[in-house]
Fold this protein.
Amino acid sequence: MSLRHLRAIIRKEINHILRDRATFILVMLAPLAMLFIFAYSLTVDIKHVSIAALDYDRSSTSRAFVQRVTEGDDLDLYAYVDTLDEIENLLTRDKIKAALVISPDFERDLLTLRGMGLQIIIDGTEPQSGGFAVEQVGGRAEAFVSELLAAQIEQAGQGQTLSLQPIDLHVRALYNPALKPRVDMVPGLISMMLGFPALSVALTLAHEREHGTLEQVMVTPVGRAELLLGKMIPYVIVGLINVIVMPVVARVVFRIPFNGSFPLFFLLSAVFLFAILGMGMIIGVFMRTQPTALALSFLLIFFPGFFMTGIFFPIAAMPEMMRMEAMVLPGTHYAVITRGVFLSGVGLDVLWPYGVMLVGLGIAFMAVAALFFKKKLG
Amino acid sequence: MKKIPPIIETHALTRDFKKTRAVDSLTLSIQPGELFGLVGPDGAGKTTTLRLLAGLLDISSGSAQVAGYDLARQPEAIKRQIGYMAQQFSLYGELSVSENLSFFAELYDVPVGKLQERTERLLTFASLTEFKDRRAAQLSGGMQKKLALACTLIHHPDILLLDEPTTGVDPVSRREFWDILTDLNLDGTTIVVSTPYMDEADRCSRVGLMYEGRMVVCDTPQQIRAHVEGELLELRPQDWQAAHALVETLPGVLQVQTYGDLLHVLVDSADERLPEIEAALEEHDLPCLDIRRATPRMEEAFISLIKRLESKGG
């Protein structure tokens, strides 16, 4: 291994990153832009969901109920309607996300404790808003009924109290008290953002192949390891700059707590970059053109990175085969590390196995890349 | 007298790609100090031959020695002795002229003490000194070629392998480039260069003509010109298309080639056929501004050889 060769390749690659605008945007700005887009869009608070009401009862109780459900910011009453067809019409035209259908016996059934004649129709094509509406209506209906009963009992007098105690379950979520999805999403997303340096490394190798510069370098005495490492190290450096910037953004913009040790996070991120860049390197070694390298990077780095590393879907819920595949993805281990450091503030005593896995994956990926990278054409 | 061993020697060198045999049993011997030209139609195997010699492709069968090293077993040792220039521009466009030079100087382990002096000498030599801070991507085609040549010379190689170095370069730059090559050759560098230009082939000490992966002729330019059968007449008819069609059918005419508004007619005997052709043109009312004898050039030699091979093959 000649340090002089290595240094020459590194210097050349850094110049490329700084001078080629597309590469610069891809490695420095794209990760941040993506973090913003994802963090905002995935975690938007649902408010002001429009609903319609079809009241067959037309009693004072049913009117009070509708009013109760639609007060506040969560649900807005779009209109009272007279037929089910009108509801369908409004749903398909996207004027409302859900509708209440109140049965003709609503008041009578409630006052005689026979139940509640209520149907909720939601737009199944947008289950998030619909589910939110169901939740809101359910919660308010419960409150409405118990208040109604309390008033009834009081009216009946004689100092009797309702002996029934509603179940009172308090869930306390640790580390993320409000159970805000954003809080656990953002640290996970950081591992995806660091996929960009890996994508770039795959692209830059394919680029050199396409433009013949690789051919010109292959006829020099430079070693394969010098060439691969020299191309990789600048992207590790770029990735580490992102590792410094992203927690700051997470903290300042998204108010994500950072409870652990930053030096530990930095160290483990460097190890993760080594592993994920190894994947990029393999793609760059096997793919001959930039479009194919790009497509394969999405297939191997980004899609599994989102869906198989436990950022969105818990790994425990996956079938066994997928769980095994998830173990081979660096993002899986890094997601545990980022969440651990950001949210629960754990240290190396807990996270070391994940660090070890990343080191192992990194070495394996680099070995495959170095093995199949020949100083030959065709 | 002691025989000097060849600096490049191949024995039945063969390279197969999936469907084609790009180089077929090439046996070749090049002496130190030669300026060897590789010519042949596109797809004849010139690029593959140069890439094989540069160690960029694996050999399918056969063997080769370059600078005393075995090509299959010691490709890395060969790399220090050769300079290779690919057909397409293959330097780093975002790096400046001098950054490209020092990048390759470091990969070739040019001693640090000599780096400055060599870079400056090569810049002067390629007349790029005033452009040394310009990005390579912003150079003209001719300057890019000169820079690429300078980069392949940075480690003072004994052998230069150049793949169509002047394709797509203007005639003035082309001539300049060849003057540089001739100087290098006179200084003792062995050069193997492929070219589509026959005037360039004429400047080589020996020329190898490749056709469908095989080397069909390998000789000095003078000898190759002598391969041409028959004698050459040059016509300047007013209507060259009609004249071409007519002359082709006349007896004793071996071949007709067009050069702009000129017709080059190969005949078995110039003395006999010249008056016949003149008469035929007059008879068909096709006036001819000029008709005279000419010496066959590499171009005619090349085309007549290829035509002969094509008619033999199919």
